[in-house]
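Field log, afternoon session.

UNIT: design team B
ACTIVITY: writing a sequence onto a fixed backbone
BACKBONE:
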């Protein structure tokens, strides 16, 4: 009886958690904003406080974000801005000199929002 209840609970938990673990279309930019920008992962890594896993997570967020089209602005500008983020987080992983400064510079909220964020 008890194990039956546990099984049902486990199943229910799997079903409710599952959609969150898939990358949903059209949400990569929002995800990167939530976790890297607003969430502070970018800042943590740029200040040299990020672990190797943090750096890899940051890079993955930016790679996904770069693949998605922004709500506003032209594609060339979007490519330039997101490439700078991808490049700088790659350089952080490689431990390249100047990477932290480039990462901070590339994460310029206002400069990007004014061109690419809808209203
Ligand atoms: C390279 C471009 C870029 C940079 C840099 C950037 N953003 Fe954004 N941000 C966007 C775009 C594009 C959207 C709109 C996403 C959408 O509506 O799908 C957005 C949306 C947001 C949102 C709303 C997310 C949501 O769920 O609607 C927040 C919060 C945000 N950004 C915070 C920040 C902060 C804080 C920084 C700086 C530390 C930052 N962003 C830097 C491009 C950028």
């Amino acid at each position: 009886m008890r194990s039956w209840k546990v099984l049902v609970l486990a199943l229910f938990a799997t079903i409710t958690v599952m959609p969150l673990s898939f990358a949903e279309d059209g949400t990569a930019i929002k995800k990167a904003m939530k976790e890297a920008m607003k969430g502070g992962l970018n800042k943590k890594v740029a200040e040299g406080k990020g672990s190797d896993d943090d750096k890899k997570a940051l890079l993955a967020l930016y790679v996904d974000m770069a693949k998605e089209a922004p709500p506003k602005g032209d594609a060339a500008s979007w490519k330039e801005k997101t490439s700078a983020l991808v490049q700088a987080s790659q350089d952080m992983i490689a431990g390249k000199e100047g990477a932290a400064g480039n990462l901070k510079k590339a994460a310029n909220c206002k400069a990007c929002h004014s061109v690419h964020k809808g209203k």
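LOG NOTE: Confidence is low (pLDDT under 50) at residues 18-23.
NEXT ACTIVITY: expression trials, pending approval
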